[in-house]
Amino acid sequence: QVQLVESGGGLAQPGGSLRLSCAASGFIFRNSAMSWARQAPGKGLEWVAGIYSDGTATYYTDAVKGRFTISRDNARNTLYLQMTSLQPEDAALYHCAKSWGPPFRNWGQGTQVTVSS
After folding, report:
1. What is the pLDDT of residue 18?
2. Does residue 47 surpass a pLDDT of 90?
3. Is the pLDDT reported for residue 105 higher than 90?
4. Half-sphere exposure of residue 96, counting CA atoms within 13 Å on the CB side?
5. What is the pLDDT of residues 14-43, one digit of tens each?
6. Prior bond of 14 cis (ω within 30°)
7. Complete DSSP assignment for the chain
């Protein structure tokens, strides 16, 4: 079955950086578009970034454009999200998902990102 395990979250200061990883198994990773989504307390799930199976196309929500970079290593079955210039409003539980955008039918348990000085 599809398994997605996120890691790399933690506490960052405003303006800081974090790199999230998602280890995928149970499906042919190189054939699947992937996404990162986040959920802040009291808010719905937000699509943050997406990447085609071959990495030739990406999507970013306006709030993270120029600050976040989604990438993948199909040889390692791993998805990444490089986050820079973090802001307090980026604090959320970040999930990776096996899809190009919503609806997110397969997603991991998430990794928590906290942005605070």
Report:
1. 98
2. yes
3. no
4. 29
5. 999 999 999 999 999 999 999 999 999 999
6. no
7. --EEEEE--EEE-TT--EEEEEEEESS-GGGS-EEEEEE-TTS-EEEEEEE-TTSS-EEE-GGGTTTEEEEEETTTTEEEEEE-S--GGG-EEEEEESSSSSS--SB---EEEEE--
What is the rounded radius of gyration, in angstroms, for the C-alpha atoms of the chain?
13
Q: Which of 60, 66, 115, 110 is nearest to 86 (CA)?
A: 115
Chain segment 57-85, per-residue pLDDT in tens: 999 999 999 999 999 999 999 999 999 99
Phi, psi angle pair for 62, to nearest 5°: -55, -35
Q: What tokens appear for 68 in the block?
A: 């976040």
Would you say 50 and 100 are in contact if contact means Cβ atoms under 8 Å apart?
Answer: yes
| C-beta pairs of 25-30 under 8 Å, 24+ apart in sequence | 25/77, 26/1, 26/2, 27/2, 27/98, 29/72, 29/74, 29/77, 30/54, 30/74
